[in-house]
Amino acid sequence: MNDQQSHQPQPDASGSNFGRGSVPPRGDLPPRTPPTPFVTYTLLGLSVVIYLLQMGTQFALGYDLPAALGLKVNELIAQGQLWRLITPLLLHGSIIHIGFNMYALYLFGPRLENNFGRWRFLALYLISGFAGNVFSMMFTQAPSLGSSTAIFGLLGAHGIFVYQNREFFGQPITRAALSRIIQVAAINLLIGLSPGIDNWGHIGGLIGGTLFTWFGGPIFGVSGIHPNLTVKDQRENSDILQAIAIAGGFFVFLAAGALFLMTR
């Protein structure tokens, strides 16, 4: 699960100047071509295919069959349809809705997948989406759908990743990247106050991605003797499994508590 990587990690900026005296400039590290972000592209493709099914069933049957089966609806979740805490990730309400979310996934996904590794990135995406839907279930009765819960989780994960590797990337790069991430999150949360937008889902996803990455995100270090230097993630597989248990378990606990109150 913990992909040991020797590529150059990427913050949300170009160039770097390492803060530690023991860490060499990035120019001294051997260049590596980033691997193809298969998980990101698969999520993009699957979301588009399902949206086409939504439109197709709307035209052929007169109603949106995938949404009817997978929308976050509190009453149906309380009746045992627990998959509705995950399936909204793949559903969207309009071409603009899916367009914005897939564009955000295309922007954030490849860089994070490159740094996290495929399986850890997939865990991040699913935990963030689940966390967002749990928060939505807890704090709003309105049905909801969309991958923005997971997108906000990626945003939070990006911020924690940059912060935890601040000595690696250097303070100027870190401050600039964190400033942009905070601005993007704040602007989108403000937009989320508009009617018809499930901002509780956004907040839950942000918390979920942040929590998972704090305990299980990559922390890079340089090993070897110049010029034979490699960059390696210092997290072990056990750290990632622990992060899944902590973040996933926390939101499972919240979901169980909310469902208990809903069915009393």
Q: What does this 3D model show about the protein?
A:
The protein contains ten helices and two strands; from the N terminus they run αααααααααββα. The protein is globular, with a radius of gyration of 20 Å. It has a single domain (32-263), classed as Rhomboid-like fold (Up-down Bundle), CATH 1.20.1540. It has a two-stranded antiparallel sheet with strand order 1-2. It is mostly helical and 264 residues long. A hairpin with a 2-residue loop joins strand 1 (220-225) and strand 2. The protein is 63% helix and 5% strand.
Distance between the amino and carboxyl termini? 40 Å
* Most strands sheet: 2 strands, antiparallel
Helix content: 55-70%
**Helical run tally:** 10
- What fraction of residues sit in β-strands? under 5%
Q: Structural class per helix/strand content?
A: mainly alpha
Q: What's the β-strand tally?
A: 2
Query: What low-confidence regions span 5 or more consecutive residues with pLDDT below 50?
Result: 1-7, 13-29
Q: Could you tell me the CATH topology label.
A: Rhomboid-like fold
CATH architecture: Up-down Bundle
Strand order of the largest sheet: 1-2
CATH superfamily: Rhomboid-like
Overall average residue pLDDT: 88
